[in-house]
Amino acid sequence: MRRKTNSSAGRRSSTTRRRSENLPFDEFGFALTKRKDQKLHHRCHDYSFTQLNPVRVKELCELLSYWNGASFICKSQIERFIRMGIPPSLRGRVWKCLLAIDSLRDTSDFSYQKCLLEVRVPLVDLGVSEYGILSAIATLSETQNHLGLDLGEGSGTPLLRCSADDITVFRQIALDLQRSFPTHRSLMGDSPEAIEGQAKLFRVLIAYAKYSPQVGYSQGMSYLAAVLLMQLGEEEAFWALTALLDKPKYLTELFDFNLTRVQHQVKVFDQFLKHRKPQLSQHLESVGVSSVHFVTPWFLTLFTSLPCWDSVLAVWDLIILHGLSAVFRTALTLVELLEPRLMDLTDEGAVLPLLLRVPFDVSKYAVFIPALWNTEVQDWELKCMSSLVLDESHHEGGEPSQDQKATLSTQASGDKENVQEGEKTSENESASGAKSVLTRVMRLAQRYLSDQRGRQRTEAQGAQTQARSRQRSPAATRVFRSRTGSSLTQSQIRSRRQSQHRGVAQQPVVQGNSDDVAVPDAARRSDSSEPTLKRTSTGPLGKAAGRRSNHSLVSGKSVRLLQSSKKRRSQTPPPTSVLPPSLRAPTLPPSSSNDTPRTALIKELSSRHQTSFPFRNARESKLI
């Protein structure tokens, strides 16, 4: 019976080899099939991607030659080229720069070649070769069954240098190899190129399973590794796969050993679809189609099931540039383009195939990629939806799983306080049961944005305070105070002269104390017309007037008296670069002809008392 199976498998492989040798391939390496076979394999060869002119290609090569991943200019320029369209010959270099493959390899202690040497040891014990892994599926299955029986019976295990988990991983990878792009020249048939391509794909996948045992191998990784091998070398493809699956920016929240993370992200997209497309979401629920049925294969294969390969590569360019948000962006764009057709269908048997096998006219580069760039998905939206999903899972089935907690902590890095407040708010709202999903989302978003505005407002106020402190230099303050003291002395002397003419007792002038401020040379030269003004005594009243001038607290009556006294004075006002316009005139108005010196002093102190300025000493308080 086994001989018949082997002979039939040999005839089938020889037939496949002859077909693969006779079929031509397109520019991306896919076999050109007939029209009826294109529908069977769901592959379109009518590509419409834009091609850059030689000048743009030269500019892109120069950008890649001096690439710096930490430079904002480099990232903005590479985004501009991705929007225009990356040439197929340069896509591998662009992906290497964006994923930082070289730096990841240099900083890691893992050796790809040593890992392959360790993997080949159990393969030799099993009698399996990496170049014939597809034909060894039956052998791996039998060995796995025998090993499981031996462990269950408690008898001695066979002398193998591999565990049952290793054999399970070998078998799972071998099963997925024959499903990954069966019409591509590097994986199709039994040609030498296909056998080498299958061996490379097996080595990359098993090496990553050894590199990250906590993640291991899961469904969908074979598609990712195969796409990377089409653009990069074997070891470069391994490090690119490592960057995609390990960096939080990319696919860390999609792949794990039990596929619980991708289930969480599918629920996040379901909430996101209810927020963006409420009518379509209700229609899908009424038909009986859940997001799990079509979003899960989209996320696990990164949209490699689209029939137009130029659109697939453009989607990958965007995902490698922006990360996980681009995955949601692509899924939302597909749903938006298919919305008119989905709304007309009322049968689950017609809706689900339309989502799983996207039509050619929708996935064309000229239609799909412009719509993709016009679609926007914000990070705060995804964080809000993730918190809602965790909140619902908490109220429905108890505590969320560890992977879901890790998902939330990774997405909310840098905004932990905002997300925690959002979770508390969503808990209260779900307990009441009276708020819709949209209301809860908008409240979380408003809180997130209001915190950002508050931070921006605080930063702006701090910048204004620093600018004021720079403008108000110590030299300007000294000049300002000295000129104020000088003007106060003039008013006192003027009031003394008027009292002498009327025969009223002279008010003693307050002598200067140790806090006097020296008058600058410019002020002395400008006041040389009156010799008595050379005194620099400012005293408590002069300092109080200086403080009052600094705060620009001049009453309306004082301003009018100031303007009338300007004409009688010959003093030149301070320069505009030192004082503001409101302070260029003397601060204290001259006493009127009807006011005695004591009355003028009491008015001055009364005005200070009304403006709530503290007194310098007990003498001023006694006078008032």
Q: In words, what does this structure look like?
A:
- The protein is mostly helical.
- It is built from 30 helices and no strands.
- The chain has helices spanning 2-22, 35-41, 54-65, 72-84, 91-99, 101-107, 112-126, 137-153, 164-177, 192-211, 221-231, 234-246, 260-276, 278-287, 291-301, 309-322, 324-344, 348-356, 360-363, 365-374, 379-397, 402-411, 416-432, 437-471, 474-502, 521-526, 539-550, 556-566, 597-610, 618-623.
- Helix 10 (192-211) crosses helix 11 (221-231) and helix 13 crosses helix 14 (278-287).
- It is elongated.
- Residues 1-20, 151-158, 412-435, 472-488, 504-555, 570-593 and 609-613 have low confidence and may be disordered.
**Count of extended strands:** 0
Q: Estimate percent helicity.
A: 55-70%
Task: Specify the number of helices.
Answer: 30
Order of helices and strands: HHHHHHHHHHHHHHHHHHHHHHHHHHHHHH
Helix-strand category: mainly alpha
Note the quaternary state here: single chain
Brief overview, please?
The protein has 624 residues and is mainly α. The protein is built from 30 helices and no strands.
Task: Provide the fold topology.
Layout: H1 2-22, H2 35-41, H3 54-65, H4 72-84, H5 91-99, H6 101-107, H7 112-126, H8 137-153, H9 164-177, H10 192-211, H11 221-231, H12 234-246, H13 260-276, H14 278-287, H15 291-301, H16 309-322, H17 324-344, H18 348-356, H19 360-363, H20 365-374, H21 379-397, H22 402-411, H23 416-432, H24 437-471, H25 474-502, H26 521-526, H27 539-550, H28 556-566, H29 597-610, H30 618-623
